[in-house]
Specification:
By secondary structure, the protein is mainly α. Helices cover 85% and strands 0% of the residues. The chain is built from 4 helices and no strands. Helix 1 runs antiparallel to helix 2, helix 2 runs antiparallel to helix 3 and helix 3 packs antiparallel against helix 4.
């Protein structure tokens, strides 16, 4: 897997969420699903191409949007938990605690 391409996509999605905020609630939920799906696929599908990993991420993002449509409060809680966990894990990794 090319970590640089996934990193660039993650940064672009993060910047879009930062500047658009609450106006893009559905994008936030989809981004949380995409980031979770891509991260897990990168860990469990070792040796697969970047296209496969991105496809898994997109699928997870679409599932997140479907959950958000039918259960908005549940989607807010799950996506907040996923994004918070991802940021915390990234920070721990960056400062060397993991």
């Amino acid at each position: 897997m090319e970590n640089s391409s996934l990193f660039i996509i993650t940064i672009l999605v993060g910047l879009a969420l930062l500047f658009m905020g609450r106006q893009l609630f559905w994008v936030f939920v989809a981004a949380a699903g995409f980031i979770l799906g891509s991260s897990l696929a990168g860990q469990f599908l070792i040796g697969q191409s970047t296209v496969v990993i991105l496809a898994v991420g997109l699928t997870a993002g679409l599932v997140g949007v479907v959950v958000a449509v039918f259960a908005q409060n549940l989607a807010i809680g799950i996506s907040g938990f996923v994004m918070g966990s991802y940021v915390l894990a990234f920070l721990f990794y960056t400062i060397g605690l993991v």
